[in-house]
Amino acid sequence: MALMGVQLVVSLLAASIMQRMAPHCSFARWLLCNGSLLRFKHPSEGELCALAGKQMPKQNRRDRRQNGENKPLTVPKDIDLHLEKAPVNVIDALVLRFFLEYQWLVDFAVYATGVFLFTECYYSVVDASKEVNIGAIWCVLTVLFCLKTLHTLMSHYFRSEEGGERSVCLAFGFLCLLVAMLVLVVREDYLEFGLEPGFSSLFDNLEIFVKQQGYADWSGCFKLRIPVTKLTVKLGLAAVCAYIGALLAFPGLRLAQTHLDAVQMNSDRPLIQILLHMGFLSPVIVLVLWVKPIARDFLANAPMGKTSVTLVSSEAFDSMRLWMIVVSCVLRLGLTRYHLQAYLNLAQKWVEQMKKEAGRIAAIDIQRKVTRVFCYLTVVSLQYLIPILLILFSTLSLKALGDFSWSTGAQDTPGVTPAIIMPTAAPVLSGALDEDEEGMEDMEEDIQATVARLSETFTALRSVLTPLFYRGFFAFLTWWVAVCQVISSLFGIYFHQYLMQN
Q: Residues 254, 485: contact at Cβ < 8 Å?
């Protein structure tokens, strides 16, 4: 197995470029600070006093606090307040909460896409079936980093003193646990993830691996433990699904709010509204693509009177499904600016709502409310982008590790590896060597031993975790992320459209 090949060199080069270019050239920083997003500045106390028709106190807030005057400056709520707009620049973005996590994750996803595209071109030119797919590793790492970032955001909600956010996450987690347990008992005739063949391949290869490791007595009882083991794995998978559902609760609720505001913001642009609706409903399309009676059976056996016509072959449908998911993710990524601008407009929207109320309000409360919207810009960006990246990179992992093809009719049916052949280190010739030559020989032996161990590890992993297993796992992961986003976003639409108005 070629470990020190072209793929590894390109991977190390991409990692080095990402580390060195991040302070100077960052796609994540450009996405927020390219001048297209406009934030709202909070008004000063002098501006609020001028709008209220009163003279600004000579003492500032600090002097009043030192003199024991804790009474805040208040103004009427119905003042004619118009917030000043300003483009988001780099200096403003650097102080935002979770900006470093946002920049690192988005830049890593960009470089992971570049490495994946290189490996796809490399595999199309060179027969590298025995090499490790470095692009797939980058894609899997992106999925893990996305989940880690969502966990960081959710832990922030759990540390909140109010506790309302914690209750929402737990409620969505238990709801997704129930849905996952129902989904995992559905037969493959309806939801064609391929989990059952994948698990069978995994346990069969584990049995062979255990036998080759010398545990024949225990492996004799392995088949008796397979039903219990499958049940345990499915219960663990249901728990993971509940965890992912809790992570995607607030991103879905936020998506619903920004979608409604973005559609209203572009009321005079029907084409943008159509694209926004298509992007919002794209997870529903992903959900339907794995429902076999609706998707594959309908296209493979389309009813035409008393006969059935095959519109698309099975291999063509697999490729078409990958392309549809990638195109939907690209569409949603292209609509990022509209959603983020709709979120920033919440500051002006809150001011317009305040003008309709009676009474007085502290000037500091107006400033805090307007500033708080901008402070959470990177959090909202992560909540919008991470679900898209999860679906996109789990689909790319499905393609690379599941031996699918972008073109029709070019893929093979994955099978079960019949045996695991462990490579051994090449023998080293001994003879009369000088001291320098002995030192070089020892170094070569260490390198050969390290390469042999790595080769043995990757060979064992590729023999146990076959493409059949990867197809079932990443297909289910892609579908489940779409399901969680559909559930949370539709609930968010109901909440913002009906519950908030009552």
A: no
